[in-house]
Amino acid sequence: xxxxxxxxxxxxxxxxxxxxxxxxxxxxxxxxxxxxxxxxxxxxxxxxxxxxxxxxxxxxxxxxxxxxxxxxxxxxxxxxxxxxxxxxxxxxxxxxxxxxxxxxxxxxxxxxxxxxxxxxxxxxxxxxxxxxxxxxxxxxxxxxxxxxxxxxxxxxxxxxxxxxxxxxxxxxxxxxxxxxxxxxxxxxxxxxxxxxxxxxxxxxxxxxxxxxxxxxxxxxxxxxxxxxxxxxxxxxxxxxxxxxxxxxxxxxxxxxxxxxxxxxxxxxxxxxxxxxxxxxxxxxxxxxxxxxxxxxxxxx
Length: 300
Fold this sequence. Notes:
mainly alpha
């Protein structure tokens, strides 16, 4: 669902940048309060894991399309919404700067679409109330599924609205929306299942982790498990990822008969590129967390 510059006008792209930078500043101020030693490695490893997961496109049966995880909801449940948003911004920045996955002009819109909706809408308004203060297997599964679907639906609708407001393409609003929303409903259902699987695994090992980003409950073994998973997925994605167009590419191709207006996924054909990208994402998100922790320590 990464938008390319060809879909965005300078005005809409600038508005996306302003909104995303404002949210980054807001998140940085909020995360200072809860910053601890566990937050820094968690931000880096969590971001690297989601970067890798986004490379793993899966086919949507009967459509000719594919999808990949957004990951924002999963990170919000593990890290809390503010750290998760900063991690998502780090992921999308690495993808845009080094992998041409989403343009620079569209980067702000992509951060809003893939970061804001899952972290600041779906997580606090749906996931937390449904999961409750004492989650069990059924509540976590339901919360993951519903919040993932709604978050992705909002992001897909935002893509349609931003494209329409930009006015640089001839994509008809109604036809575009009627393709974008259903295909991302299917993708959201898969993301919900994957999010539930990861969160149930973590919850069984360390139940306290899912209480508003209680990172102190995260063990070194779980951090190591996420890191290994990130490396394995990033190294293998090029071999097993679907080559079909993703939901946005598919929708545009259906409307216009061409798919040149959108960015391609990160170099899924190269295992080395995936590992390098995951490592750079880990480094960037980790540096962001480290800088915030040092500023907090300096203020006493």
